Amino acid sequence: MHSALNPRHPRGFTLVEIAITLVIISLLLGGTLKAQELITSTQINQTIQEFRNFQAAYYSYQDRMGHLPGESATAGELLIAHTNNTAHDEEDRFFYDLADQGFIKQSQPSPPSAIADFYTAGFGSSQNVNTHETVTIEDANQLCARSLNDNAFARALDNKLDDGKPKDGDVRADEEDYSSEDLSVVCMRLD
After folding, report:
1. Which residues contact 94 (CB under 8 A, 6 or more apart)?
2. What pTM was estimated for this model as a whole?
């Protein structure tokens, strides 16, 4: 007969072995979560820097050319909304004009895919602000990130560049609250 205390036939793991295994697993999970947090933070910071670069390009273009990028001959000081189509029509000229003059690298820039699907620029009339078509700030030229994939981006952008309120200041969202499931656009005033 074999005894329960026989060292040749151990009954299972000791508490020390289980504790060490749990510590290793928790360190791996903690490292993975921290790495994901750093990736998200980097994407948010990259997009914020792009917003700032677009704003600088907007002013530089205006200084060099004497009019706004994407400006229509009939619109005066108003921007024309940009769409994701080929940027050669007058309505699609904002990013094309900035790229043509060397202020940005691409005529159709896009944010990190984890943040949003595309950028737009436009002037906020009362009609398109109320319907959230493309912009969120009334009577202002603005740059927007549209089709947001992460609401935390909109909150982080507003907190870092403005007052943190989605319906006030120079950075605004298309909803009253950053936790809204319907949030899809966040815009920054250009002028």
Report:
1. 69, 70, 79, 80, 82, 121, 122
2. 0.73
